[in-house]
Write a structure and sequence with these properties.
The protein has two domains: 61 residues, 2-Layer Sandwich (Alpha-Beta Plaits), CATH 3.30.70.1140; 255 residues, Alpha-Beta Barrel (TIM Barrel). The chain is built from eleven helices and 15 strands. Helix 3 runs parallel beside helix 4, helix 6 crosses helix 7 and helix 10 runs parallel beside helix 11. The protein is elongated and about 65 Å long. Bound molecules: phosphoenolpyruvate and manganese (II) ion (MN).
């Protein structure tokens, strides 16, 4: 249920909030530029529509049909923009997040950051935990990688993001990084979603390997319903019968998310395809389809990478890539940041 406020006084707003809590529901206040809306979360809240409609300060009350209420456009008509570090995702920007698949060593990470900084990259990605299909493959260097990521920020001024895979790591990682990432394999790890939902830092939520868009938005709902409203969705390709590419890049998910949700959505061309030769054309398509950003893997020496060696750009290839996507961003009236 959503309650749209008219010219409500502070006291009236408080009375509405008190009543919501008294009934055992959770209120979420959404401050729009035109109107203030309170989303009421809880089972059977719709049974009280009439009661809330009568309260002073209430303009209208409506039932929300979407199962994902806070993520839905029904509760939040304006597009949400999210600050990561000192820059904003959404709002006509295309945020470029670049960096290696994994933190392998201090030297490899800092060398990559050093090469990316002069290209204007403001967001650095690198995983310290690697969710690998085989337990014998490189698993990431773990929490000690945080110090290396901190050096990336202090030496090169980039905001840093990394994946969390375990509830126990969320707090220590969240204290250091500017943005958390939930990987595709954990999109429905509900305890993990709730834990990142209790943090202040923005969260990039990747779409699960075989998740529908609704399931993905429901996963975002878990984070939002815990109080963290800074969720950036990331399309990273889905499983289909096609085998030429590692996954099938679902470009249609980008405009669909914009039709169904107010949350920003970015695109990961590397994990979508697993092929270097598909990164540029699909990134162009994603920008044209309305993506709010790209998550791109760049490694100082991709051929030596401990994970995803085939799909990572060298810094030089990435510089060329940036040149080629700029005109597409311009054509859709957006700025690359
Ligand atoms: C990643 O971005 O490092 C990653 C592992 O991607 P995904 O979760 O999409 O497979
Ligand atoms: Mn990777």
């Amino acid at each position: 249920m959503i309650i749209v406020l008219g010219k409500a006084s502070e006291k009236q707003v408080q009375q509405i909030l008190d009543k919501i809590k008294e009934k055992g529901f959770k209120p979420h206040v959404i401050q729009g530029s035109q109107k203030t809306v309170i989303a009421v979360i809880g089972n059977n809240a719709a049974a009280f529509i009439e009661e809330f409609r009568q309260m002073p300060g209430v303009e209208s009350v409506a039932q929300v049909s979407a199962a994902f209420k806070l993520a839905s456009k029904e509760t939040h008509h304006e597009k949400t923009s999210i600050k990561v570090g000192s820059e904003v995702f959404g709002k006509g920007n295309i945020g470029i997040i670049a960096g290696p698949c994994g933190v392998e060593s201090e030297e490899q990470t800092l060398n990559t950051a050093k090469a990316l900084q002069p290209l204007g990259v403001k967001f650095f990605r690198a995983s310290i935990f690697k969710p690998r299909t085989s337990p014998y493959d490189f698993q990431g260097i773990g929490l000690k990688g945080l110090e290396i990521l901190e050096k990336v920020r202090s030496q090169y001024g980039m905001a840093i993001e990394t994946e969390v895979m375990d509830v126990r790591d969320v707090k220590p990682v969240s204290e250091v990084v500017d943005c958390l990432r939930i990987g595709a394999r954990n999109m429905q790890n509900f305890d993990l979603l709730k834990e990142v939902g209790r943090q202040e830092k923005p969260v990039i939520l990747k779409r699960g390997l075989s998740a529908t868009i609704k399931e993905w938005l429901m996963a975002a709902e878990y984070i939002l319903s815990e109080g963290n409203n800074k969720v950036i969705l990331c399309e990273r390709g889905i499983r289909t019968f096609e085998t030429e590419a590692r996954n099938t890049a679902d470009i249609s998910a980008i405009p669909l998310v914009h039709l169904m949700s107010h949350l920003p959505v970015i695109f990961d061309p590397n994990h979508s395809t697993g092929r270097k030769d598909l990164i540029l054309p699909l990134s162009k398509a994603a920008i044209a389809a309305g993506a709010d950003g790209l998550l791109v893997e760049v490694h100082e020496h991709p051929e030596k990478a401990l994970s995803d060696a085939k799909q990572q750009f060298t810094p030089k290839e990435f510089a060329q890539f940036l040149q080629e996507i700029r005109p597409i961003a311009k054509a859709v009236g957006k700025t690359i940041i």
